[in-house]
Amino acid sequence: MDEAAWVLRTDLKVLNSLDDPYLMTGLGSLGGRELMVHHAPDAGQGAEFRVFLEGGVVYELGMAAPAEPWFRVCREEGYEPERHWDLDPALILFRQVVPALAGNWREQPLPYGPLGVPEGVVCLASVQAAWNKGVALLPERDEGERQVAACLRELPLRAVVFHDDPGRREDFLGTGVDDPLLGVFVHFGRSRDRRVTLSKATLNGTGGLRWSPWAAGGEWREEGRAWAGTQGAGAFRAAAGLGGPPCAGFEAAFTLALTGLIRDLDEAVEACRQACPAPIPWHRDPLTRYLNHMIVDVRVKRDRAFLVLDDGSEVRVSG
After folding, report:
1. Can you tell me the distance from the alpha carbon of 94 to that of 106, in angstroms, rounded to the nearest whole number?
2. What are phi and psi of 191, to 5 degrees?
3. Contact 54/69 with Cβ under 8 angstroms?
4. Of 73, 75, 212, 65, nearest in space to 125 by CA
5. In terms of DSSP H, where are the helices of the chain?
6. Segment 179-209, tens digit of pLDDT
7. How far is residue 36's CA from residue 16's CA, in Å, rounded to a whole number?
8. Distances in Å between the alpha carbon of 198 and those of 3, 189, 232, 270?
9. Which of 174, 186, 312, 316 lies 20 to 30 Å (CA to CA) from residue 14?
């Protein structure tokens, strides 16, 4: 991850940073909102570490995620997981904001664990760690398994997009559902141009959730037991940049490996869902994504024209 890639619309301003062996503080602002981090390593009943937003605590040691106001600030400031890979609100706070506010601290390190966030925090980094661990343990007993392991090692997990929206009563097939929409898309790939997606979402009005290798935004229709448009092993090979035809046994080994990886990934994703403090619908359909925005630029990429909106979104011009 490029730690310097600031994705929010408003720059973080560091106003003050105090380094003291017993009380370290950092003060800043983001879009007119006051931010403060407070760390007291030798407090009477254990270390204290708190992050304040507009005077209210949005994180203290022991919480599984920052509180709702911080998530909403990220949403208002333009963060979108589909567009801003390798970041989520927790990582923006703990890997970007807090280190900047604590830039003058020398006496004590930040109370972070191996994932670069405080121990106990559940976030995108937790899901990435679960995927990386599973891929590292894939068997390589024959050529099929070796090709599968090589393929999946080239597909880092980049984003987790929750589609939890209590207000929607249609699934991603356009079928009416009785329960609130629940779903998640997990993006993998070296680049957005060559990405693959695993998803778990309400299917065909059944109300059930299941994982499948979907492409986001595709058209899905049931044909017997297969789903038209579903990404198969070939799409994963292409996204990983593997040339040539797969060897014998690749397809079977791929299905088996992905089944096991999804089992471990599901636990990490659900922990992340439970830690999210509010049902904020991060995904936006094209209407709500582009409505009431101005065109500020036109870019050409590989002979394709894109309109750039004032929030950084890009709209491809057809034709």
Report:
1. 17
2. -150, 160
3. yes
4. 65
5. 68-76, 89-91, 98-101, 124-136, 143-153, 233-240, 250-275, 286-290
6. 555 678 888 998 887 888 887 765 544 445 5
7. 9
8. 25, 11, 11, 14
9. 312
The pair of three-digit structure tokens given for residue 307, joined into one six-digit string: 């309109």
Q: Which amino acid is at 174?
A: G
State the Cα–Cα distance between residues 54 and 73, nearest whole angstrom. 11
pLDDT tens-digit readout, 66-101: 999 999 999 889 898 888 899 999 999 999 999 999
Sheet holding 157-162, edge to edge: 157-162, 183-191, 194-202, 209-212
Residue type, position 271, single letter: A
Half-sphere exposure of 159 (CA within 13 A, CB side): 23
Read off the pLDDT of residues 105-143 as tens digits, 9 standing for 90 and up. 887 788 999 999 999 999 999 999 999 999 999 999 999
* CA 89/CA 231 separation, integer angstroms: 29
One-letter amino acid of 177: V
- Name the β-bridge partners of 308: 297, 314
Strand bridging mode 33-40 / 48-53: antiparallel
Contact status, residue 159 vs residue 82, Cβ threshold 8 Å: yes
Please tell me the predicted confidence (pLDDT) of residue 280: 64
Indicate if the pLDDT at residue 214 is higher than 60: no
- Give the C-alpha separation, 208 to 316, whole Å: 34
Environment class of residue 32 by beta-carbon count within 10 Å: exposed (0-12), middle (13-18) or buried (19+)?
exposed
What is the pTM for the complete model shown? Answer: 0.78
End-to-end CA distance of the chain: 35
DSSP-derived pairing of the beta strands 157-162 and 33-40: unpaired
Q: What is the CA radius of gyration of the chain?
A: 22
- Look at the block and give the residue holding tokens 């106001």: 69
What percent of the chain clears pLDDT 90, i.e. is strictly above it? 39
In one-letter notation, the amino acid at residue 243 is G
Name the residue ranges covered by the structural domains of the chain: 12-118, 125-275, 286-316
